[in-house]
Every structure is written in C-alpha cells, then in structure tokens.
Design goal:
Layout (H helix, E strand, L loop, with lengths): L1 E5 L8 H10 L4 E3 L19 H10 L6 E7 L5 H21 L3 E5 L8 H19 L5 E5 L7 H11 L4 E6 L2 H6 L3 H8 L3 E6 L1 E4 L7 E4 L8 H10 L5 E4 L12 H14 L3
Helix pairs in contact: 3-4, 4-5, 5-7
Length: 272
C-alpha cells in the first residue's frame, strides 16, 4: 500500500519540513496542491529555477511526487479562463517530466446553468485540447469525483466519450458518498476500471455548517472507509492512498503533524 498526503494539509510548511514529516511517518509520496501559501507552485523557485535541487532532495529521501493537483477545470466560463488553464497545464506537464510524475489532477468544474449534456460537450472539447499537451509527455489527466462531477454516471459518460488512456479517474472516496449518497460499490462498479488514484478523508453530518458536514480525522466520522479499502483491495487496486487534509480551506482542523501521523497509522492498521 502506497501512502501520500497532499500539501493542502500543510500550507505553511517548507520543503525540509514536508520531506522530514513524510519520511518519519512512512509515506511513499507527496502530492503537491500548493506550497508556502501559493497554489501555483510552478511560479516559485523550488519548482522553476531551482527545480533540479528539489528533484534531488526528493530522490535522496526516496519519496515520489505521484500527482500534481492542479486547479485546471474542464468546464470553463470564458476563453480567458480556458487559456489560463492551458498554460497551467503546460507548467505541470513540465514538472511531471522533471519529477517523473505520471498524473495531474483536474476538476470537472461547476456547470452553473448549463444543461448536463451541454456541460459534457464543453468538458469533452476542452479535455481533448488538454490531452494534446499531456499525451506528448505521456502524462495522464485524472478527473476527480468532485464539485458537479461526483455522480459516477456523469464521470463515466465523459470519460467514455473522450476515450483516451491518458484520461483516467481520481476517486475522492468522500465526496460521492457524503454529498449525493452514492454507495462505494456503485462508484466502483461504474468507474472502477478507470480509477488510478484515490483521495481519502472522513466526516460526519453537521447541518449547521456551510458544507453540511464536518471533516475529521479518519475513523472519527461515518464514511465507510474500511468497506472502501476492502473494495479496492478485492479488485487489486495498486495506486496511491492519498490523504487530502483540507487545512488550507478549514484552518480549524487539527494541525498537519497530528493528521499526517494519524492517517499513516490508521491506514496501516486497516490492513490488520
């Protein structure tokens, strides 16, 4: 079992602290979703002018960067937004080549007042252009079960229409179950053959909050995590189990030192 955490959970940590914590807690990789307060990490020296040094540090620590979690959306609202995502994608593809990273996470994006069929058409058109950039470097784009794309039926339709081995799925095991009540067995039955990567989080219902739920340490909520793990294991899933601790968006959550250690312990115990 390969473990990683996203840097969404440690928005203020420098590289030394990220690497040290990952090694000490038995992680295999780090998924970058921002660094030192900035989401566009490719604008920072560690991932541009000094990237070779960063590559060296990760190699010395025997840590992978299995995925770069971008902000790229498939449904865009303007040509300007689309062009910005194209440029962001180019930057992440370049980083993938530097770090030998196979995946870039993308969002479906909010569809707003668009009919679902029209949203799928827009997403298909855009992702084909994105893939023209990714495929050249043999990088796969992972559509996350997130925002207006938590229903596995819509995700499947889009992935089937695009029909590219370079367009696969990231199963955020929390969102389909929590936000629309989709059972894990249903998600796997619909999307399993395309799921290459997973995000992990737990929560419990808290209706008075903006989201309607409260994120918490794994095992303290009611997401059927053991059931999901067993489902993945039964179906020979061999990808990463990545903690997405949303500290950047939810500062009230436990500090990363606590969450990262707890996730590693929880996932190793789940094997017993």
């Amino acid at each position: 079992m390969k473990l990683a955490f996203t840097t969404l959970g440690c928005p203020n940590w420098d590289l030394e602290r990220i690497i040290k914590n990952a090694v000490e807690n038995g992680y295999d990789g780090v998924d970058f979703r921002g660094f030192l307060g900035k989401l566009d990490i490719y604008k920072l020296p560690e991932f541009s002018s000094n990237v070779k040094e960063t590559v060296r540090r990760f190699k010395e620590a025997a840590l992978e960067i299995p995925c770069f979690s971008s902000s790229v959306k498939l449904v865009t609202q303007s040509q300007e937004e689309y062009e910005a995502y194209l440029e962001e994608l180019r930057q992440y593809v370049w980083l993938c080549k530097e770090f030998n990273t196979p995946y870039i996470r993308v969002f479906g994006g909010a569809i707003g007042e668009l009919k679902r069929e029209k949203a799928i058409e827009v997403a298909e058109k855009n992702v084909r252009q994105y893939l023209a950039i990714a495929e050249e470097a043999n990088v796969k784009l992972l559509l996350e079960t997130h925002d207006d794309w938590t229903d596995s039926r819509y995700v499947k339709e889009l992935v089937q229409r695009v029909s590219s081995e370079h367009f696969q799925i990231l199963w955020d095991v929390h969102h389909p179950y929590r936000t629309i009540g989709e059972e894990p067995e249903s998600t796997w039955e619909t999307l399993g053959e395309r799921i290459k990567y997973t995000h992990w989080k737990d929560s419990y219902v808290k209706k008075e909050t903006r989201r309607g739920y409260q994120l918490c340490l794994l095992g303290e909520g009611d997401i059927p995590l053991q059931e999901i793990f067993s489902l993945l294991k039964k179906n020979d899933y061999d990808g990463y189990f990545t903690l997405e601790w949303e500290k950047k968006w939810c500062p009230e959550l436990e500090e990363p030192e606590i969450a990262f250690k707890q996730f590693s312990k929880y996932m190793n115990n789940i094997l017993l």
